[in-house]
Design goal:
alpha+beta, five-stranded antiparallel sheet, three-stranded antiparallel sheet, 10 strands, about 35% helix, about 30% strand, globular
């Protein structure tokens, strides 16, 4: 039974919408008051969520956000940031960073990482109003990561866009995954989850070509999403609405104040 509870709590955590993990935690604590250790027991789920969602955190004494991912993970709960050349501890439940130390980048592709990071910054500033991005070495590839969050709880919606690309220098091959997650919850509960993948694509061995390919993929994806929204608005959503009332007669709204409820509108039925 205890393991079932941990599994259930972990599922809630891993499925938390963008910007709403704290709300999910509060709900879990309220529902599991008889076992206050459940949240701590679900720590692996928090780590999985934070790494997969590319959660951002500000380092102590810094106003700059850095990424949490599997690609910049070190041992014993530490992560590192290439730009600030530092490593830090990260608590996956509180989402707080601490114990910042110097961490120099060690990679045979250090120059390429630096150049790609600069170009990625330009790309992000041009296309995303708010984002955090980084390039990390991973095995024989480079991970190019970007996350853009936009939270508007006062308007009952939150959203997150994530892109992960892997560039393999020996073969000049680029692959990628793009994900968008938007949650709207005013008088209801609607969530958009969409993913696009970039299959292995061979490109010229240059930073400009890498970013040119990324920009083309993201533009095409945005256009696909826009077309999809138009189809929903004009098709599926419209079909969900009743075209005529139960009586199969249109309501004459200019006379609505003179209707007697249950007779004219109800077709005379009692």
């Amino acid at each position: 039974m205890a393991s079932d509870n941990v599994a259930a709590v972990s599922a809630f955590i891993e499925g938390a919408p963008p910007g709403e993990l704290a709300d999910v935690i509060n709900d879990i604590k309220t529902l599991t008051e008889d076992d206050p250790t459940l949240v701590e027991k679900a720590r692996p789920a928090f780590q999985k969520y934070n790494e997969e969602q590319l959660i951002t955190v500000k380092l102590p004494g810094s106003g700059k956000n850095v990424l949490i991912s599997t690609y910049n993970s070190l041992e014993d709960g530490r992560y590192y940031d290439v730009e600030s050349q530092s490593s830090f501890m990260f608590d996956h439940i509180t989402q707080k960073a601490s114990d910042v130390k110097s961490h120099a980048l060690e990679s045979q592709h250090a120059d390429l990482i630096t150049s790609l990071s600069k170009t990625l910054t330009t790309h992000a500033h041009e296309h995303y109003t708010s984002s955090t991005h980084a390039v990390f070495p991973t095995n024989s590839s480079l991970a190019v990561l970007l996350v853009s969050n936009k939270y508007s709880p006062s308007n009952f919606w939150n959203g997150r866009l994530r892109t992960t690309y892997l560039y393999h220098p020996p073969t000049t091959t680029l692959t990628g995954t793009l994900k968008c997650d938007v949650h709207y919850y005013e008088d209801g509960n609607v969530r958009l989850l969409t993913t696009k993948t970039l299959p292995p694509t061979t490109i010229a061995a240059s930073v400009s070509e890498i970013m040119k390919t990324i920009a083309k993929v993201e533009k095409g994806w945005q256009e696909e999403l826009n077309r999809g929204f138009s189809r929903l608005s004009e098709g599926e959503f419209k079909s969900l609405r009743r075209q005529l009332p139960v009586t199969r007669q249109k309501v004459e709204w200019e006379k609505v104040t003179s209707y007697r409820a249950g007779k004219e509108i109800g077709g005379g039925r009692r």
